[in-house]
Amino acid sequence: MKKFSLTAIARTQLQEATATSHGRAASTVFGGNEHTLRQTVMGLVAGTELQEHPNPGEATVMVLQGRIRLSSGTQSWEGRTGDLLVMPAGTSQITALEDSGLLLSVAKTDRGQARVTG
To answer: In what residue span(s) does the Cupin type-2 domain sit (predicted)?
Structure first.
């Protein structure tokens, strides 16, 4: 068994994100290409966007700290610390409205392969 402090990892990723020119950093805490489930902790500096990308299966975003906007087409949803957002099918984009730490959980289905960049 493994145990992680997601808030500590998010804090570290956010610190790393502030040191990069693109304002984001990520670390996979569980899974990978050989697994169906992949969980990645991301740090996003306020104003940073994860460009529109396809949902590779079933996915959620847990806001560990901060505030984000999840957009898909003409719809958008805001998430704050403690909120869990279910990502819609199709494509979506995430924008950090404040410095934010996220847990992205993706269960890959036969609809595609997960691509998480950090």
So the answer is: 42-91
Per-residue pLDDT of 84-93, as tens digits, reads 999 998 899 9
Closest to 44 in 3D by CA, of 112, 93, 105:
93
Q: Are 30 and 106 in contact (CB under 8 A)?
A: no
3-state DSSP call for residue 16? helix
| Separation of alpha carbons 12 and 44, rounded Å | 11
Please give the domain boundaries of the chain with CATH numbers for all domains.
Answer: 6-108 (2.60.120.10)
Report which of 10, 43, 68, 63 is spatially closest to residue 118, judged by C-alpha positions: 43
Residue 53 falls in which region: left (phi positive, over 0), alpha (psi -120 to 50) or beta: beta
Residues of the chain with pLDDT under 50: 111-118
